[in-house]
Amino acid sequence: MDYTKSIGNVNELRCITKFMSKGYDCSIPYGDNAKYDFIADINGKLLKFQCKSSRNVKKSNGEIDKDAFQITCTHTTTNTQQTIRHKYTKEDIDYFCTCFLGKVYVISVDECSNTKTLRLAPPSYNTETYNKAENYLFDNVFSEVSEEYASSKEVFLSSRQESIKKERSMCAECGEVEVYYTGGICPKCSAKHRRKVERPSREDLKGLVRNISMVKIGEMFGVSDNSIRKWLKEYNLPFKKTEIDRYDEETWKSL
């Protein structure tokens, strides 16, 4: 993909993401003939937006002004004879939209000529008349979220809050783990009910594994030797034969 095209696509996605984060539905035109990049449904009003990449501007001495950024407010058409630059009109779009340093800005097309410069800080001269970037921040231009979005968010948060408020109780079987409803059981106890084989007790398994191979024990209970090792792990017992053989009888009984 062309580098400049990629930059434009990323800028457009960031702008659309900001609108959607506020609950505004966005529509993208099919094909590339439209003069706008997307339409946003702002509480029932359809507005057309043209996304533009922004860049820092240069001072008169040629240095980069890090406190100001600019967008181009024109588009071009080309034929066999010439390239013509056109200004956007109110009939074409309603707003320009750009993302600069992670923040989204929207500017009414009525305020723009060939370019539009926004400043993050006052210039060193004529500090009274300049375009303050903060005035064009998305959240300052479209401060309200979608009405439907706000309503559904309120319902969602309310239901979440009610769920949190539900009184917890202890597991009805082990009595050691909190569960969300009275009479409920914890995941560990629930897993026991799903077992297809009744396990031997810890003491019984200790006695068996001391004298019989895990393969043989598995055959006794209709499971694999790996299952026996899993049981030993859950009982916090050694599960390797070499480790088991290191214990004398008295130490083994005390485990």
End-to-end Cα distance, whole Å, is: 65 Å
The residue ranges in which pLDDT falls below 50 over 5 or more consecutive positions are none
- Total strands: 12
- Could you describe the largest sheet, including whether it forms a barrel? 5 strands, mixed
Overall domain count: 3
3D shape: elongated
CATH topology of the largest domain: Trna Endonuclease, Chain: A, domain 1
Derived from helix and strand composition plus strand pairing, the structural class reads alpha+beta
Strand and helix map with partners:
Blueprint lengths: L2 H19 L3 E3 L10 E5 L2 E7 L3 E4 L5 E9 L1 E5 L4 E5 L7 E6 L2 E6 L6 E5 L18 H4 L5 H19 L3 E2 L7 E2 L7 H7 L8 H10 L2 H8 L3 H10 L6 H4 L4 H6 L1
Parallel strand pairs: 3-8
Antiparallel strand pairs: 1-2, 2-3, 4-5, 5-10, 6-7, 8-9, 11-12
Describe the structure using short key phrases.
255 residues; Trna Endonuclease, Chain: A, domain 1; 3 domains; five-stranded mixed sheet; three-stranded antiparallel sheet
What does this structure look like?
This protein has 255 residues and is an alpha+beta fold. It folds into 3 domains: 145 residues, Trna Endonuclease, Chain: A, domain 1; 30 residues, no CATH class; 56 residues. Helix content is 34%, strand content 23%. It has 9 helices and 12 strands. A 5-stranded mixed beta sheet has the order 1-2-3-8-9. Helix 6 packs across helix 7. The longest helix has 19 residues. The mean pLDDT is 83.
Quick structural summary:
The chain is α+β, with helices and mostly antiparallel strands and 255 residues long.
